[in-house]
């Protein structure tokens, strides 16, 4: 399985059969100016919540790729009003697609759409695909709800926000790894704005001292999971 990072919380997972895109925010991210949005392909686009730094390119990319959007019903209603035809509304629960299973899980955050309308509850996702279990936390603070995941899954990777201020910081993310019992983390939601800038070397070192791995791929970089 290939993971490609596009900046902020936007990334792609290329499975054996499908291309999954998450929280598309590229054209408005100055750190991602070198990314060719027109070249991005997706079969599904999963959206954690409605804030602009997670949905700025959602409508354009959904139309460009013909992808099915997976999100809470309020976000689905919003994208359909803008002409997106393929959508799968979810709430906190799980659904098995022809490529794998998705569970929508709790995130502690806020959520509204760029036009100010209500975007439903923020969420994260746990994916079971290609024999792996991967948790994308979305935008969230540290929450005891995460402990439930360790009872249900044996997570291979966790994709966690680490920038602080709006979400968990590095120290909170380290605690989260203990809650979810996962030692391999890909960090997202950092360095895009001054308020979420971090010392990346220090972050990696903190994880290493706890015998955990923090992966911080560059924008546009792909890694194999």
TrEMBL record:
Pfam families: Lactamase_B_2. SMART domains: Lactamase_B (SM00849). GO terms for molecular function: hydrolase activity. Transmembrane segments: none annotated. Residues 7-189 form the Metallo-beta-lactamase domain. Keywords: Hydrolase. InterPro entries: Metallo-B-lactamas (IPR001279), RibonucZ/Hydroxyglut_hydro (IPR036866), UPF0173 (IPR022877), UPF0173_UPF0282_UlaG_hydrolase (IPR050114). This is UPF0173 metal-dependent hydrolase EZJ43_00460.
């Amino acid at each position: 399985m290939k993971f490609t990072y596009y900046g902020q919380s936007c990334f792609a997972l290329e499975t054996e059969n499908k291309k999954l895109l998450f929280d598309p925010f590229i054209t408005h991210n100055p750190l991602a100016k070198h990314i060719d949005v027109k070249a991005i392909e997706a079969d599904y686009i999963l959206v954690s919540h409605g804030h602009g730094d997670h949905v700025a390119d959602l409508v354009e990319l959904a139309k460009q790729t013909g992808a099915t959007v997976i999100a809470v019903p309020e976000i689905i209603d919003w994208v359909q009003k803008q002409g997106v035809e393929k959508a799968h509304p979810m709430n906190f629960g799980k659904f098995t697609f022809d490529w794998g299973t998705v569970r929508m899980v709790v995130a502690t955050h806020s959520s509204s759409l760029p036009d100010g309308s209500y975007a439903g509850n923020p969420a994260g996702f746990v994916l079971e695909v290609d024999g792996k279990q991967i948790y994308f936390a979305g935008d969230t603070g540290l929450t005891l709800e995460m402990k439930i995941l360790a009872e249900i899954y044996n997570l291979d990777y966790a994709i966690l926000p680490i920038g602080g201020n709006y979400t968990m910081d590095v120290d909170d993310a380290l605690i989260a790894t203990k809650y979810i019992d996962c030692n391999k983390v890909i960090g997202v939601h950092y360095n895009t704005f001054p308020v979420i800038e971090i010392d990346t070397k220090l972050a990696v070192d903190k994880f290493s001292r706890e015998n955990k791995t923090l992966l911080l791929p560059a924008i546009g970089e792909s890694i194999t999971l």
